[in-house]
Amino acid sequence: MSHPKTAYTPATHTTPPARFSHGVRKGNILQVAGQVGFLPAAEGVAPTPAGPGLREQTLQTFANVEAVLTEAGASWEDVVMTRVYLTDTAHFVEFNEIFNEYLADRVEVPGARTTVYVGLPAGLLIEIDAQAVLG
């Protein structure tokens, strides 16, 4: 039996710039597309990073991932894998501190994680995607 796919776009998010979903669920699998540290969407305002620093952008990126998880009926506890994309290897230690602090009270068993270094649009320092299994 095939399960339908359901797309999720929280009210805090803009419509994606191409043909993809911020989150998509099929059966009990939820894939959250790469989220960045943009502040919540405001009509008529271009997407704006939460700040120039890694901490501000990382916390907003986590909030954006969580918004998709919540919209789809999931939580960080359902996440089995995150992929983290950093623009600078020098951010690795600081990111780990923020990551550990943020998830400390949100998950009992942490999911797997991969971290890679990439180029992102100007001003963005981090992107995170997640995969969750529900039920």
From TrEMBL:
Tell me the domain of life. Answer: Bacteria
Gene3D superfamilies listed in its UniProt record: RutC-like
InterPro entries, per this entry?
RutC-like_sf (IPR035959), YjgF/YER057c/UK114 (IPR006175)
The molecular function terms of the Gene Ontology recorded here are:
deaminase activity
Q: Region annotation Disordered: residue ranges? A: 1-22
SUPFAM superfamilies, per the entry: YjgF-like
Where are the compositionally biased (Low complexity) regions? Answer: 1-18
Which Gene Ontology CC terms are recorded? cytosol
Pfam families according to UniProt? Ribonuc_L-PSP
- The entry's protein name is RidA family protein
What organism is listed for this UniProt entry? Answer: Streptomyces tardus
